[in-house]
Amino acid sequence: MKNFEHIKLLSKSKSMKAINQLSPAAFPGNHCPMHTSLAIASRIKGVSTLVIGATECGYYSRNLVETSEFKEHALHWCYILDENEVVFGCRKGVIQAIKKMESEGAKVILLIFTCVPEVVGEDLDGIVFEVEKDIKAKILGVGLGNFKCGSQQPGFWKTLLAFGQLAKNSVQNKNIINVLGRSKDENHIPKPKIIEILEQNYEIRYVAPNSTVEEFEKINEGLVNLVFSPFLMPLAEFLEVEFGVPFISFHSTYEVEEVKENYEKLFHILEKDIDQRVFEHYEMALNLQNEVTKIVSGKRYVGSKIGAIQPLPFHRYLAKLGMMPLMIHMEDFYTNDTYWREKMLEENQDPLLCMMVNDYSDKEYILALQPDYIVGDWIGRTEFKEKTIQVMHCYGLGGFELTINLLKQMKGGNA
Amino acid sequence: MGLYKGTPPLTGRIGTLWTLATIKESAVIEFGCMGHTVYARTFLSRFGAQGSKLYSTHIRETDIAMGDTTRLTKAVEEILEDKSITTIFLLPSTVPEIIGIDLKSVAVELNSHYTDIKFITFDTGSFHMSLSNAIEKTLLSLVKNLSSDIYEKSDSYNIIGSNADIYNFNSDCLEYERIIDNAFSLKKNCILTSNTSITDINNIAKAKINLVIRKEGLEAAKFLEKKYGTPYIYKRPYGFDDTSEWLNEVGKLINIEVNKGFLALEKKTHNELMEPYKMILQKFMAAHKSQSNLVAIGHIDVVKGISRYCKTEFNFKDILLYTDDMYLVENDIEFITDTYKQEFKTKEKCFVMASEDVIKIFGDVGIQIANPNSKWVNPYDAPLVGFRGGINIGSLLANQLFKID
User: Fold this and answer.
1) What one-character DSSP code corresponds to residue B217?
2) Residue of A5, A75, A267, B52 with fewest CB within 10 Å of its CB?
3) Spatial distance between the Cα atoms of B303 and A260, rounded to a whole number of angstroms
4) Contact B351/B294 with Cβ under 8 angstroms?
5) Regarding beta strands A138-143 and A203-207, do their DSSP bridges make them parallel or antiparallel, or are they unpaired?
6) What pTM does this model have?
7) Which of B28, B50, B52, B55 to probe the A interface (max A CBs under 10 A)?
8) Chain A CB within 8 Å of residue B337 CB
9) How open is the CA angle B107-A85-A158, to the nearest 5 degrees?
10) Distance from CA of A288 to the nearest CA of B (A)
11) How far is B11 from chain A (nearest CA, A)?
12) Cβ neighbours around A126 below 10 Å, total
């Protein structure tokens, strides 16, 4: 019989440090943040990277670089620490490497610190500060020791946050709206209605993992940032603090009235009357929300893997529909999760928080809780089809479309 | 180590992990960050290396600060719910290696607690340990720790040194197996370590002979010779002549005559198929003298074997060999450094046999014989070694002509 003594409640968890693995043996487990950081950076035209760490980091990650369509436009090198540098530090070698990269044409260099330099306490900020005086290239850095986190997720958001440093001293332009977390060419995910409406009167700038250096340089020119991905939230928060550009989180707002408030807030920022077309799906979303509430209210569930969706606001919404979260899988504790934690606790929701890293063992833990539903992906999805609510195709959506998409999946799984 | 513009060379930690990853009835637990194990599993799957169950404990800041190994003991407890596992290999990743976690002591404790399970650690995690050194130590450790005392021989053979780090290891091993089965009617006993199990290693002393196909397997073979009297032969044969010679030497060691009918049939097939390849290559070499040299980069036994074969079979005069392990250099075979690789960018096109990254430097012209590799490898692809490997190399070289010209 599985026990849950090693797993803490939400009320006892204030950061990722408190969220433990459900199973002690990861199989297969999560990728490391270096992987996602490099995946993003190597696909931004003009950005060079330097992975600093052990041989493993350099060897395994080269495939990522090789598949980048922009690999000829930048340098993607690695700096491997030897046994002396593990003891005495790698500052000198890394600085020489950066200078060598600049001499061979690198204009923007992202330093990716992996486990080894992180554990020996190498000073990333100090290296950036020291080398910046001597070179013209822009140096960015991300500390991504895998032991400091639970998954690949920080690799996404920390890297995109670092690109915020590229923003130049631009003047805010009232005709520009930034969409954070969607690409201009993202045809496989339907374009949210709000973007369709806004692009008739505004210049929409899409800031996504595949944006260019030039686009990041102008990122603070926008009047407002509309956030459609949790990976771009820390960047949005940074832009608000640093440049006073407000943001609206569409990716984490599901409740119909709260979505409506988001639209109202947006048009208030734009200093315009609200465009009534945004309410086109309001009635539909509201009816669906009421309908699904009747089906799922009072049901106990386990939240498993939901992909690139921020877990706490998502599960808070399910709780608002009347569901009772018993245990939630979280791969990262986002910078604004303290807000969502407080919200859930205020609303008397205090589930267990865990990190699922072993599909087979986790299944036994999940079933031991005897949930009515499992929300998200898990290995029992076929065997327990009736109990499983898959959550798919939500990334990049926002507004009533996100709510409707989610509710339809919930209804489809249970009606 | 320092700065690399391309792929850095493999090191000891990876060598041990990859060597163990193909052993059935075992689990490999990496005490360290799980991202590494995820990467390793993906790469091993690409190579077709399966067998062992790979787990990671993951590790957090508090474990590092306190030197706490509770995660490991808890992981063992859960993993042993799988009753097919009889041996657990404990490996450190970089962080525990740096902070000096004593996995040997943990293994002693675990061995006393789980008396029917073997816990084995390896002294191959340090930052200066090379790939070859680690593989040698790992193979030796496996036979020392797991071989049972069996002194009666059966009509069987072992292959030592078929491991996941050598490109095409599965199909190369299958070719050696096919040849030995047909030449001597011997049964396969233990393939160390691709396609093996803990039971196979327990029974390794049963075999009449150990066929060592890479240098790193020599210490294990010497141990088995000393302890169980099993003779060994060290050679990685390529092509008809090399392989026939190898079979004759094997026959002498085990006092069994090579099946002449099999050999005659292989020779006939070889000669018929090789004739057009040789003809077209000779014509090309006569017309393109400056491009008729060969650069081979890979494991020392692979490049030496290919060099022997290409010299005798195709009359390559100018052959440049490099090894991909700095501890396996020989007089005329240097270690391939990152600098050498970059210099190839300006080299004239020629016949290249190397890893995928080097082939890319040569403008995607070349024959892959080494890792790194990004492709998903079919274990039943044509081999590079033995009789059929020779024919395969002939066709691959012939197909290079239009790319070089």
Assistant:
1) G
2) A5
3) 68
4) yes
5) unpaired
6) 0.94
7) B55
8) no
9) 85
10) 40
11) 7
12) 10
Residues 6+ apart with CB under 8 A from B289: none
Say which residue the tokens 């996995």 belong to. Answer: B103
Adjacent-strand bridge partners of B54: B28
Strand partners, B373: none
Cβ–Cβ contact B126 with A under 8 A = yes
The first and second tokens of residue B56, run together, are 């990671």
- The secondary structure of B195-207 as a DSSP string is TEEHHHHHTGGG-
Cis peptide before A28 (omega within 30 of 0): yes
**Residues in chain B closer than 8 A to A34 (CB atoms):** 35
Report the b/e string of B357-368 with b at 16+ CB within 10 A: bbbbbbeebbbb
Over the stretch A316-344, which tens digit does the pLDDT of each residue have? 999 999 999 999 999 999 989 999 999 99
Residues in B touching A62 (Cβ below 8 Å): 6-7, 357, 372
Beta strands B2-4 and A76-80, pairing class? antiparallel
Q: Is B326 on the interface with A (CB under 8 A)?
A: no
Q: Note the pLDDT of residue A413.
A: 62
Laid out side by side, the sheet with A138-143 consists of: A138-143, A108-113, A47-53, A76-80, B2-4
d(CA B385, CA B178): 12
Measured between CB atoms, which of A24, A60, A62 is closest to B75? A24
Kindly determine whether residue A62 and residue B7, on different chains, have CB atoms separated by under 8 Å: yes
Compute the nearest-CA separation of B6 from chain A (Å). Answer: 7
Could you tell me the two tokens for B305? 């074997």
pLDDT tens digit string along A296-320? 999 999 999 999 999 999 999 999 9
CA-CA distance, B157 to B230, in Å (whole number)?
Answer: 10
Q: What is the pLDDT of residues A357-375, one digit of tens each?
A: 999 999 999 999 999 999 9
Report the run of H or E that residue A367 belongs to, with start and end.
helix A359-368
